Amino acid sequence: MQESEKVIGTFADAADTTLSAVKHFKQQAEAVTGRRLKVVRTDQGSEFRNEKWAEFCAAEGITHEFTAPYTHQQVGVAERGHRTILERARCMLKDAGLPGEFWVEAVSTACYLKNLTSTHRHPEKTPLEAWTGRRPDVAHLRPFGCTAYMRVPDETRQKLDPKSVACIMLGYFPGRMYRLWDPVSRRTHQSRDVIFDEGDCHRIRRVGGEQGIPTTTIPPTRASPTPHDTEQISISSSSRASPTPHDIDPTPHDIEQVSFSSSPSSTSGDTNNTGQSPNPFLSSTLDSNPIPEPKPPTSTRCSTRARNLSRRQHETNEYLQREAAANRAGDAWATDTSRELDLEASSALVAAVREDLTVPRTYSEAMKCPEVWLPSMRKEMDKMAENEVWELVRPPPGANIVDSKWHYAPKFDSEGEIVSYKSRLVAKGFTQVYGVDYFETFTSVVRFNSLRLILAIAVSYDLELWQIDFESAFLNGKMKEVVYMRQPVVVEGKEDHVCRLLRSLYGTMQAGHTWWHELDKTYTDLGYIRSRVDESVRSRRMGGDKTPMTSRVLPPPRQEQLVTIFTLLLIFF
């Protein structure tokens, strides 16, 4: 159903199969939801447009709608769902290193996992929870394609037989059971007594492929390798009997020589001496893919292709050529060096000031100079109280509580002199959990091409160009999610309370997105319309004149209109 977005996958190849799948879905959906199935929309394929389907729809009172030929957008939800499932199945097969013959298991697992994952439309609950009304348990989920050791029942094994079999996890069965595939017997098993190896699995296996590329080799159908198939590994080292500390960083003379040779005369005793790996994937891969001899390194070939300079490099070269020509001609703009001397002196002054100043990194370091940093910290806390950034509440059990820290920085003027000290309280947003206390994080940023275009319009029409800066901009955004933060300054009598953020504090994951959403709403209320090309460019008509703007640059045509806009912004913020 579209309200829950639950996916039910069925593999059908004929009209009878598709019809039986729809009948099964109809019975299940009507039993769970208590509603009748009224409309079914499909394409005009022969597996849907036939006499059996027509009789079923007529008997059940179902309207069967068909899409126009070659118009997949009429069933866009289903087509997009197919694409999402296939992309996930393809990634799962590639990540697990399994061949394409397991596509059915991958698609079934992708459908199963999609029902346990919240969507953008319903971030507060999963499709399965919306379908059944119960929150599902995901403690049984395991990586697709990982190594799974299935317990062999006592009734089906002999006394000396192994108690477990190494398999590959391919999916799930109802009732907390797993679909396991034995690569030796090439059979699929169904079991719930499984021990998973999620650490040393397909993601870091290096056998049978290049270094760093995980591969999984499907062994042959035989039960166990014969002695003739076992490879003999002989190692001949240097004359020293035991390694010394110098062997940790070997020189070319200390490197051991390893040779691999397949010996048909190897006996079972030799096999036991070399040792068999308990991993069936390792032994089967060594049998089928012998390791080749290392090739001598080849010298790198220098490219003889002519390099094409970028546009910026061409512009830089042209500017340097024009400056050199103007310098030879004695032009004032090329020979004036006073500005360079002023810049060098200013840079040296700033460097000298910063050498004498120690910026604290923690609260304890700042308290070593309280006369410098304490006033700015009090100003920051007063601003928090003025904007009502948080409220003190008791946290619920199991709540994710975010820490905070102080950030300190001095402010310099154009001459390099310190004009003020800045202290800012920021949250440690990296401890937030996606889907719990934050969702969206994107923020629209103005493009430099748009900014240049605004400047060009202002110069061309002789407009007044103004720039505004919002003080503590992020604190103006209203927090939608529930985020808890520990108290930066513990209030006496409320030691067990935490701060529930009402405003988007700096450092939270959604701070930028919340401020952008609030600013966009304010500009919309003021009558500005966003550009379809750049969301940061807005415009509106005032008295017949069109006023373009960006998120921070306002070029109104007249002074009185500028005062009106500033007054309205002060009312909002």
Note down, in words, how this protein is organized:
- This protein has 15 helices and 20 strands.
- It is α+β, with helices and mostly antiparallel strands.
- Among the domains are: 15-132, Ribonuclease H-like superfamily/Ribonuclease H (Nucleotidyltransferase, domain 5); 363-572, no CATH class.
- The strands form seven sheets. It has a five-stranded antiparallel β-sheet with strand order 6-5-4-3-7. It has a four-stranded mixed β-sheet with strand order 10-16-15-11, with no helix packed on it. A three-stranded antiparallel β-sheet has the order 17-18-19, with no helix packed on it.
- α3 (76-96) packs across α4.
- Residues 201-217, 219-292, 349-355 and 552-557 have low confidence and may be disordered.
